[in-house]
From TrEMBL:
Oxidoreductase molybdopterin-binding domain residues: 105-249
PROSITE patterns: TAT
InterPro entries tied to this protein: OxRdtase_Mopterin-bd_dom, OxRdtase_Mopterin-bd_sf, TAT_signal
PANTHER family, per database record: BLL0505 PROTEIN, PROTEIN-METHIONINE-SULFOXIDE REDUCTASE
CDD domains hit by this protein: bact_SO_family_Moco
Name used for this protein in its record: DMSO/TMAO reductase YedYZ molybdopterin-dependent catalytic subunit
Domain of life: Bacteria
Amino acid sequence: MAKRSFLIPGVDKRLLIKDSIKTMPDVTRRRFIAGGASLGALTLLTGCDVIDSSSAEEMLKQVSKFNDAVQAFIFNPDALAPTFSESAITKPFPFNAYYDLDDAPDVAGADWKLEVRGLVDNKKSWTLDELYKLPQVTQITRHICVEGWSAIGSWTGTPLRDFLKLIGADTSAKYVWFQCADKDGYNSPLDMRSALHPQTQMTFKYANEILPRAYGFPMKIRVPTKLGFKNPKYVVSMEVTNDYKGGYWEDQGYNSFSGS
């Protein structure tokens, strides 16, 4: 690919880089700076020169995609996230969202059904009672938020890989994409290797009690190998697909892989 280069008198490209890096999510920004952020690094990775704020933003999007690819490449599907004893559980476990608890979805469990779409043999919708009857396991793992805090909680549910096998999902597909009940249409893609990780879970209980509204009732996807925003709550549907459909935070510049 030929390198594009345009000169605009008076534009300080280094300042443009600094300003653009400020728009990165905190974790991505810290990792990028720690890796030696520079005009030369951006140019080398993307084949483009920075000429204005929009071109700098486009460069950073390409770097984000590069970061996703590297994380996916080095991801070990057999490596487990740390587990903890009950004495280590954070009390109270914090509510976390981009809105207040009063604005969290209030889902009627009796009417709720999990819609299954995409590359699966069985596309039936599942009631909450049907899902509760599936074999479940409990894990005590750490939730790591992109904002810099963490908390340990006890989560009970069905391994996602077992459910994908049950519905005849094509596990050679690239993604499992989740849609949620949040008013802003929260959604999030999960790469298939992470979906098949033994600790990735369809969570129905917290601390051995039915999952409360604050933590995602009626179902959340618990992915302890990912940052917190990759753990969607209030899930209403899942789709097995080869198409990258983006996500609520991913569309705002956060890395899609976002391993913790």
